[in-house]
Design the sequence.
């Protein structure tokens, strides 16, 4: 239900029960607003999804209805110089809009590469890498 | 005004103007909640690489919080410090909020990225110390009610 701005009534201008229920009934606009207000401070953090439900090169969709922050950390291995790239796209289940890209260099003590990005509700996202890159950390925070 | 859970009324049950106005009056709890609900953000994604430059000051004039991710490309044989600045009330922000070094000389770090938040009205800048560093990708997500 959308929002109807408050309207002050005068003495004797009695509302009908239909009018009341539209605003304040169990499924009225007040309940809708309460649901929205409850979202403001809600923020959940995932466990480390690396090696679990997330993998490099796989496309995911943010179906949680909230804004999602994602931080992915990868580690170079075997002396390679890998790259990690993140892609986010709103209406494409094979997202190719690059939003972040970072390198690591296992041969020079710069082992870890991290990308941090936002996934709007319902958007698709994927993180890819070249070979010789191990997925170490994948965390997601869903907010509002 | 605080929040009270909704309660249905039956047909022909009388509601007086005091009860109505407490909830649905022009300054009642309905409008109080509306002001809160307006803060719940949606989110837009913008690729702004073509309209942003390293070393240039910008202001978040969207009226909403902004999340920024910037990726740079470091030339082979070069290295750089890569920094983001965010500051309120200063058109030339010099408060460093995040920094990383990218070495594409003795190490093979060609691409590096930074992410940070910009509150509404704040000024921000992304800069690299090496002249040969080029802006590769600049993405902004605005959270809006």
Sequence:
């Amino acid at each position: 239900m959308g929002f109807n701005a408050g309207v002050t009534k005068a003495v004797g201008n009695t509302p009908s029960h239909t009018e009341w229920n539209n605003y304040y009934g169990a499924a009225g606009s007040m309940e809708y607003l309460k649901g929205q207000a409850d979202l403001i401070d809600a923020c959940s953090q995932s466990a480390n999804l690396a090696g679990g439900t997330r993998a490099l090169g796989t496309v995911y969709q943010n179906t949680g209805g909230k804004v999602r922050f994602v931080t992915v950390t990868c580690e170079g291995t075997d002396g390679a110089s890998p790259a990690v790239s993140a892609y986010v796209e709103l209406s494409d289940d094979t997202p190719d809009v690059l939003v972040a890209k970072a390198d690591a260099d296992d041969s020079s003590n710069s082992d870890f590469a991290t990308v941090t990005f936002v996934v709007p509700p319902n958007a698709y996202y994927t993180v890819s890498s070249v070979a010789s890159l191990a997925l170490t950390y994948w965390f997601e925070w869903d907010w509002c | 005004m605080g929040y009270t859970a909704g309660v249905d009324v039956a047909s022909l049950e009388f509601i007086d103007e005091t009860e109505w106005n407490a909830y649905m009056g022009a300054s009642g709890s309905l409008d109080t909640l509306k002001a809160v609900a307006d803060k719940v953000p949606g989110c837009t994604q913008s690729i702004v690489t073509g309209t942003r430059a390293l070393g240039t000051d910008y202001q978040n004039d969207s009226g909403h919080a902004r999340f920024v991710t910037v990726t740079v490309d470091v030339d082979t044989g070069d290295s750089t410090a890569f920094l983001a600045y965010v500051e309120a009330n200063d058109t030339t922000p010099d408060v460093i909020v995040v920094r990383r070094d990218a070495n594409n000389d003795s190490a093979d770090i060609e691409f590096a990225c930074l992410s940070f938040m910009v509150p509404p009205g704040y000024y921000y800048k992304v800069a690299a110390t090496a002249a040969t560093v080029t802006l590769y990708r600049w993405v902004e997500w605005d959270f809006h009610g």
The domain at 46-143 of chain A is CATH 3.90.209.20 (Hemagglutinin (Ha1 Chain); Chain: A; domain 1). The first strand of chain A starts at residue 43 and ends at 45. The beta strands of chain A are 43-45, 60-61, 67-76, 83-89, 98-103, 112-119, 124-129, 133-143. Chain A has two helices and eight strands.
